[in-house]
Automatic annotation (TrEMBL):
Keywords: Signal. PANTHER family: MOLYBDATE-BINDING PERIPLASMIC PROTEIN, SULFATE-BINDING PROTEIN. GO terms for biological process: molybdate ion transport. Gene3D superfamilies: Periplasmic binding protein-like II (3.40.190.10). GO terms for molecular function: molybdate ion binding. It holds the Pfam family SBP_bac_11. Coiled coil: none annotated. This is ABC transporter substrate-binding protein. SUPFAM superfamilies: Periplasmic binding protein-like II. It comes from Lichenibacterium minor. Residues 1-23 form the signal peptide. The lineage of its organism: Bacteria, Pseudomonadati, Pseudomonadota, Alphaproteobacteria, Hyphomicrobiales.
Length: 327
């Protein structure tokens, strides 16, 4: 990360009352500390009283759990594809609705895992910590949200608000010389790819691979290369793919283009290779209230906010487009 951008992020964290900022430039692994999440230096934490700071990059980090569990007024389960946008979204929301200031809690693990947590009654274990939290609203792809409404997990209607397209994320300077999706089938390129079991983006990626190289390319990337170890399947692709690229574990991976934009904005040594529209896939993001939500009014308020001009402008800063906008 560039020194200027890291200083700005640190200033933001301090302004928000964050403590425990990174004190060193390196970790025991030999990689610079900026490689490891959390990457926003506290800006994605809504808690006003943070108490003792105990965050150790690479060792003790809960990067996809944000805010305080102490009597939140709004709990959001957000598919992690825009974890980086939540800090400015929450700030803008609280500016319009100050009664919620410092009282939001949100998770940004993959959509399929969020469903598993809901089915477990909101109970989740991360490392040695087990906690329970009941969500008020859930956000993922429109088809996923509609399916969860149909099976009774969510209360309709679905609220679509933004769209996103795919890109190929690569290390800065693209040392493997990846130029297209077709190159991902090369046996010499190590990939980090989202796991189809619980990461919805994998479905769109397979569609894009099929457009670019037919079933042979999709089967190579998600079949032969998985078997021989040259494709590593991620579990939280929105953090693992750039992490693997910066560590040198992988040389390319397909993600939503907004994720590459964020990595480049904060100065990580990450770049991306555009995918032509003819080969690309578009996701529609949507949300809905969870059936039996503890805070129904708060959920409705957020669902109205998420498609407002204020929220959509924030999304556009990361390359998203408003739902219904022209390609």
């Amino acid at each position: 990360m560039t020194r200027t951008i890291r200083t700005l992020l640190l200033g933001c964290a301090l302004a928000l009352g964050a403590s425990g900022a990174r004190a060193a430039e390196g970790t025991t692994s030999g990689f610079p500390d900026y490689v490891f999440p959390p990457w926003q230096d506290g800006a994605n934490n809504d808690a006003t009283d943070r108490g003792l700071a105990f965050t150790v990059p690479e060792v003790d980090v809960m990067a996809d759990f944000h805010g305080s569990l102490d009597d939140p007024k709004l709990v959001l389960f957000v598919g992690g594809n825009y974890f980086f946008a939540m800090a400015p979204l929450v700030k803008a929301f609280e500016g319009e609705h100050p009664e919620y200031k410092g009282r939001l809690f949100w998770e940004t693990i993959p959509p399929g895992l969020l469903v598993k947590q809901m089915e477990a009654g909101g109970v989740i274990t991360v490392g040695n910590m087990t906690f329970k939290v009941r969500p008020d609203a859930y956000f993922a792809g429109l088809k996923k949200v509609q399916g969860l409404i149909d099976d009774g997990h969510l209360a309709g209607p679905a609220v679509p608000y933004a769209t996103n397209t795919l890109t190929i994320m690569v290390p800065k300077d693209n040392p493997a010389h990846v130029a297209s999706l077709a190159d991902l089938g090369r046996p010499d390129i190590k990939l980090a790819m989202p796991n189809p079991e619980f990461e919805g983006v994998a479905r769109q990626i397979k569609i894009a691979l099929g457009k670019a190289g037919g079933d042979a390319l999709a089967d190579a990337v998600y079949g032969a290369k998985v078997k021989d170890g040259s494709t590593t399947l991620t579990h939280i692709h929105h953090r693992q793919t750039p992490l693997f690229l910066m560590q040198g574990v992988s040389q390319a991976g397909v993600t939503w283009q907004s994720e590459a934009v964020f990595q480049e904005q904060v100065g990580h040594p990450i770049a991306h290779v555009a995918i032509p529209a003819a080969d690309n896939a578009t996701a529609v993001y949507a949300g809905a209230m969870v059936k039996g939500a503890p805070h129904e009014e708060a959920a409705r308020t957020w669902l109205a906010f998420i498609r407002s001009p204020t929220a959509l402008k924030i999304f556009e800063g990361y390359g998203f487009k408003p739902y219904g906008a022209s390609p």
